Structure formats: structure tokens, C-alpha cells
## 1
Amino acid sequence: MVTIDIETDDGQREILRRMMLIRAFDNEAGDRFADGEIPGFVHLYIGEEAVGVGACSALEPDDYITSTHRGHGHCIAKGLETDKMMAELYGKREGYCNGKGGSMHIADVDAGMLGANGIVGAGPPLATGAALSAAQKGEDRVALAFFGDGAVAQGQVHEAINLASTWGLPAIFLVENNKFGEGTPVEKQHNLENLSETAEAYDIPGFTVNGMDVTAVYEAVEAARERAVNGDGPTFIEADTYRYRGHFEGDHQPYRDDDDIEAWQRRCPIDAFANRLVDAGVLTEDEVDELRAAAEAEIEDAAAFAENATDPDPSEAYEDMYDVSVPELSTYAGGSLRADGGSTTDQ
Ligand SMILES: Cc1ncc(C[n+]2csc(CCOP(=O)(O)OP(=O)(O)O)c2C)c(N)n1
Ligand SMILES: [Mg+2]
């Protein structure tokens, strides 16, 4: 895991590379899902790359993130390996969760990636918990929760932000306002112009940033991180972004027009940043093309790795389901609820 310094040419190149990797990964995942090679559902992050990469690049390697059902971009932004991610999408043993999680449950706790999550709004409580642990242990770590506009009004999200604010925890709540929760436009979900106004209710700073601009996201998260590690509590950031693909692959999208998609595609966060780096003399156009080709080649290799990886044996189905170091759960997978065979309901 590397620390990324946006002030340096190397840092800027790495930021561009990670956004390109996400784009290539999700294009490949979409194609392979369409070919029937990937089971379950995939929700692609294409168009939103600047949010994940801007945010994670402003974090330190030890910091925590929580993710959503649309989590591939968060994983790559946090530095996870694309071959193990693709193997997880394929349900293979070499995947991050031995193939038992799939697209919506990739986790790598050692890398601070506390999990993609199929439950809308489930990330913020985990981030509040991680931030509480960092505060109690006196560690210089923060926890950042990515969540969608569709999660902002979830009860557990309110509880999580309220506790983090009340206890002054080192947490960052980052809403990816991509304008839809499934097929419901954001203005039909909320009676607020900017979702960041939500922050007022918790008496924490809240602001909206251009989520198509990786630098803007980086700077917002950098400031929020500094506030968090200084003991000044959480920050609420809304990133104004857009998803280019359907809610899930296969979504016919009757709820929006192609014109809207095309207008946002003209604001492509990857092209915008690449052009800026070319204008600044950090990269030539050829070098941008080389970086993109290298990202695409890495993802082709990752997909080949996943294809050739091993199917888990059905006899392993109940392994890794519970943390057996927790005594009460040690025999759960075997059928009884508690080590002494009693029911947990009497506790
Ligand atoms: C608690 C819960 N309610 C409903 C769903 C079904 N669901 C899955 S994704 C989704 C929309 C989420 O929208 P948003 O939070 O804006 O994220 P986006 O898909 O736009 O990234 C819904 C309602 C769910 N998975 N969990
Ligand atoms: Mg959304």
C-alpha cells in the first residue's frame, strides 16, 4: 500500500492510473457478465472514478474505508489487487473471499477495506465502529464511509453519523450523489437541494464538491482527514457525480435519457484529469495512451487469472462463515448456537 502525494508528478500519474484501472476493470466485468461468465449481479462504477480515487488517495494506507454494492472502484482506489478481485467476481477460491462473496462483498481487512456491502446504508455504522476503535486505541487512523444518495435517508446512516458527531470520532462520511437510487432520481428521494445540508443536523461541517474532479475530491477528503486526526470529529462530504451505466448490468434504464448520459460523459473524470496533466507538462499524450494500454493489459491478465482459477469445493461451503475465535460462535457452523449447546435467545 502506498501513500499518494498529489503534489508530485508520480502521485498524479498514480491517481490517473488508478482511475484508468477502475474504468478498464468495470468495462471488462460488464462484458464478461454479459457473456454469462460472472454469476450474480454486477454494479459498475464507470463515471464515478474520481470520487473513489480522489478520496482514497487522500487517505493514509492504514486508514479504513467501507464500501457499497458498487464497490469495485473503492477496492482499486484502496490498492487492492485486480486479479484477486476478478477471481472473487468469478466465485473462485483465489478471490479475496475465496469466491464466497462475489462482486458485492469484496473485503481486505489488512488493506483497511472493510467490505463492499449489499445492504444499502450498512457502511456508515461500520465506519463509525472503526473510527471508535481508532479513537480508543489512540491510533492516527480515520474511517471513511462511501455511501450513495439512496442511503442518506437510511435510519442506520443517521444513527452512525449522530454517534460519530456526538463522540467526536475520526470519521468521514462521503456521499456519492450519482443522481439515482436504482431508478429513482435524487430529487424524488430528498427534499434538499444539496445532500450535504444534512450535516447541519449533526453540527458537523458539510459541503458539496465536484465529484468529476479528482483534485476537488482529494482536497476535500484531505481537509476532512486532518480535522478527524486532530480530534475535531467527522465531516460530511457530498460528491456530485453520475453513473454512466445502468443501476446493474442488464438494467434497461427507462428512467433517464441518453442525452443526460452523454452530457455527463463529456465531463469524463479520467479525460479531464489526463488533459490537465498534459497541459501541465506532467505527461505527453503518448504517455497517457501508454498508461491506459497498461491498465487495460493488467485487467486482461486479471480476467485470464480469474478464468483459470479454481472452483471452491462444495465441502468448503460452511468454512469462513463465522469467526471461530469468538467462543459463542465456535460451534454455530456445526449446528448448535452456543458452545454449551444452549440457545442464544436466553442471553
Ligand atoms: C437496506 C436495503 N434496501 C434496499 C436495497 C435494494 N437496493 C440495492 S441498491 C439500491 C439503490 C441504492 O442507491 P444509492 O445508495 O444511491 O447507490 P447507487 O446504486 O446509486 O450507487 C437499492 C434500493 C438494499 N440492497 N438494501
Ligand atoms: Mg445513487
Note: Residues 68-70, 118-121, 148-151, 176, 178, 180-182, 247 surround thiamine diphosphate (ligand 1) (CB under 6 Å).
## 2
Amino acid sequence: MSKIYLDNGSTSFPKAPGVGKAMADFIEKVGVNIGRGGYEEAYSAAEVVLDTREKLCRLFHFDRPENVIFQSGITAAMNVLLKGLLKPGDRVLTTSMEHNAVMRPLRQLEESGVEVVLIPCRGDGTLDFEALIDLATPGTRAMVMTHASNMCGTVMPVKEVAEYCQTLGIWTIVDCAQTAGILPIDMEDWGVDAIAFAGHKGLLGPQGIGGFLITDDLAAEVDPLLSGGTGSISHLETVPEFLPDRFEPGTQNLPGIFGLHAALTYLEQTGIDAIREHEMACTARLLEGLSRLKGIRIVGRTQLTGRTAVVSVEFLHMDNADAAFLLEDKYGIMTRCGLHCAPRAHMTVGTFPQGTVRFAPGRETTAAEIDAAIAAVKEILGEN
Ligand SMILES: Cc1ncc(COP(=O)(O)O)c(C=O)c1O
């Protein structure tokens, strides 16, 4: 049985051409550390790392490559940003659609006296902007939000939120896990203070590399969560003040950065618009086919606008986990069922605790695969 991968919301597969080779070449032919050795190989590896920061700046419209901070992914990025910024007594806003990469650090901070305020979202996952206006009181320290829901694909009005928060002096931090490499992101135009990205989803790179881009103003407010050797100002035992070293102690994930570099090169050549258009064509076909079935409910936005290529469905008369198991076992269709690390998002759309089955087409998904998925769901439901 050939397999059909529809779990790109979790991680993209296949990765961009050249990613595996770039990583293997680094391990087998380069292998050195950067910022530590005074030899040619170390300098040229450092150039690839700098070039990766520059590519990320071009993609996200930001002009400070040294303010691109590598971490293992969004989870690490959010821990560094939130735990470094928020202090007991601070008030922070977030939405009811967040992934646990945001919610769990916030809940930990709540235990130490940070006030966490949730902005309610509607049944289709869209943000209630009026509620934001009510809850964004002067003195609020930060707003942290996802750019698009990993559970149902609903896109959030990040630019409008950031502009509004800026008028009140509230820092805006955005989780771009589901949109980096997929939707246009313009950090400067939007007035966002930090964005976190994962290399392994829409950027088509490897797992274990991601990070954040941060303005100088916000960086000055964030205490480093980790400290250690950076290869710079080694005569001092204090943490460097300058970026990226302030937030990048220890040896970096160089194979990951080399892989991400290859993925970004591919994205620059192909253009993210072409990939998004393909994914959205798959999504249109999927939504159209699934909406004809009676035994399921499509969660979130049923139209194609204001969403990404993540489609969640609730099986109305059978357990979602059983449906996902059958899809894989009988038809070779790989989806993700359950709560998608976003319990609050499921509460928002009314699918807690049962969860949903999530279908997420990617850049290599074909129309035939979408049709096969629709036919499989139909057969599982016993509908003609
Ligand atoms: C919206 C969202 N935020 C955060 C994460 C966590 O990202 P990472 O795996 O890079 O830590 C994910 C990944 O599933 C996600 O979808």
C-alpha cells in the first residue's frame, strides 16, 4: 500500500531538495565549529550561518541579521522570549487559539505571579478584536499570539493587533510556526517586536532548528534564559550584551542551520506564493469533498479565505482516533488526531476533549491523493 502524507501541519515532508545533502555534507566534509577556531573552514562555515540569518531577514522583512537568534524551534524560542521578558506582576495577553509552546510557558509564569489574560476567539477560531480592545489595558507588558492556528488553520489579524498594541506600548510576539514559508510575513511593516519560526514546517528544513527575530528595543528587555560560552569576549565571565551572542550560548546546531540554508535557497528560487497556491488548491479540493459528507463537521473556517492548508474535521458518530487509525491502517493516509497540543483551541471551537482529525496537505500533495483521502473518509463513514 502506498502511503499518503497529510500531516504537514506537524512537520513538512518531503523536505526541500538539497536539505539532506547539505546536512550530510556538513557532517562529512566540514564538521567544524564556528566562532571558536581561527582557520579557513571555521570562517567559511560562519559565512553560511550569516547567510542563513540574511535569508531569514529577507523572508520576514527585517534588516538586522544579527538579531536572528537560532534556537531548536518555536518551543525554545518562546521559552527564551517569555521567561526572559515577563516578571511577577506583569500582565500578558494571548489568544484562546494557542499551541502549548505558548500556553505552557505562560502557565508556568502565571505560577510565579504573571497575570495571563486570554482573548476569546470565535467558534471558527477568528480573533474577537473588540475583546482585545477591552482587555489591552495600558501597562500590559506583551501580547503573544499565533499567526495561524495549527489546529484548524484560521489566520489571525497580526498586523492589526500589532498596530493596536503599539499604540499602547505593548510588545507583540508572534508564533509563526504555521505560516513561515507559507504566508507573507513583514515584521517591519506590521510593527511586530519578535517573531518565532520553526525550520521544519513551511520552511521545508530539518527538525531541531528554528529561532526568533527580535527588535533591538525588545531584546534589551529580555534577560537571557541560558548563559555560557559564545566564543566572543572570552576574557569576561558575564553574558555578552550584543546579538546574537546574548541569546546563543553553546555550540549551535550547525547541521540544522546548513539544512535550513538549503531549504531557504530553495524557497527563494521557487517563491513561497507558488507553494502556497498549490497547497490552497489542495485545500479547496479537500474542503469541497469533505463538506459533502454528513458524518463529519469541518472545524474552523469552511471557506478558503483567512486560512492555511490545515483542515480539521470532527467525526460525529465515531471516535476520531478510530477514524485516524482506519485512515492509516486501511488506506495508508497519515493524519494527526487528538488535541494537536492546543487544548484551548479545541475548547474554542467546541471539540474538547474529543479532538479532531487533521488533514494538512503540503507542497507535494497531489489532487489524486486528496481524492483518495475524501473517498476513504466517505467509505469509513459508510456514505454513498
Ligand atoms: C502553532 C505552533 N506553535 C508552536 C509549535 C512548536 O514548534 P517547535 O516544534 O518548533 O517547537 C508548533 C508545532 O507543532 C505549532 O504548530
Note: The chain has two domains: 4-14+271-381, 19-270.
